[in-house]
Structure formats: C-alpha cells, structure tokens
Design brief:
Helix content: 55-70%
Number of domains: 1
Structural class: mainly alpha
Strand content: under 5%
Radius of gyration: 13 Å
Number of helices: 5
CATH architecture: Orthogonal Bundle
Largest sheet: 2 strands, antiparallel
Strand order of the largest sheet: 1-2
Oligomer: single chain
CATH superfamily: TTHA0068-like
Number of strands: 2
C-alpha cells in the first residue's frame, strides 16, 4: 500500500492530478482507523488541483477546504510526508483562488526519509 501511496504522490508532483486521484483513492479505500481522514485529505488535494487545472475554481476551492480540514489534526510529519509544508502550500492556494490569483507554484508533496 505504501508503494501505491508514493506513486500517487509522484503523480501529484508531476501534475497528473486525475491519475493521482485514482491511485490515491485506491489506497484510501483500504485504510481503516485514525489515518483514514489523512489519506482522504491527500486524495482531496489531487481532486482540488484537478478541478483547478480544468478551470473549475469553485470546485477547486470547495475540495481544497475539505482537504485542509481533513489534514489539520495530523502532526507536521505524517504518513511519510512533510505535512506542514503541504498545509502551507494549500493555504497559499486557498488564498490565491479566493482572490482570483496570482497562483502559486504547483503543489509538491515532499516525502520524508525512511523511518519518518
């Protein structure tokens, strides 16, 4: 499952948001327990960026808000990623969409080293 999750993150980083959503949703569906909202939040990041790439700003903003809510309770380093940095990027995107731009660089999910 972790390899599939990493693949989904790579797809986000490549800007392949629709495919990232498919891969990450497969991971999320298998997760039970306390981490379920974390994985759902990451799926929602891919969905929000896909909406933005299709000029659906209302959809992007709506799903982005859900992603931020779902990711908020987790520690800064969660699920093998730098979640603090991801949340910072999502806040910038949320503000930019609300203001109609300018838009930040594409979202990049940074993986942590082994054991994090």
């Amino acid at each position: 499952m972790q390899t599939l999750f990493q693949h989904g993150l790579e797809l986000i980083n490549q800007g392949s948001y629709y495919h990232a959503h498919d891969v990450l949703e497969e991971v999320w569906r298998e997760v039970r327990g306390d981490d379920r909202l974390f994985y759902q939040g990451v799926v929602q990041v891919a969905i929000a960026m896909h909406h933005f790439s299709r000029a659906n700003l209302a959809g992007a903003q709506s799903v982005l808000a859900k992603a931020r809510r779902n990711l908020a309770p987790y520690p800064p380093k969660s699920g093998g990623i730098d979640l603090e940095d991801l949340r910072r990027q999502l806040a910038l995107w949320d503000a930019a969409i609300a203001c109609g731009g300018p838009y930040p660089d594409p979202v990049q999910v940074h993986s942590l080293g082994v054991g994090c």
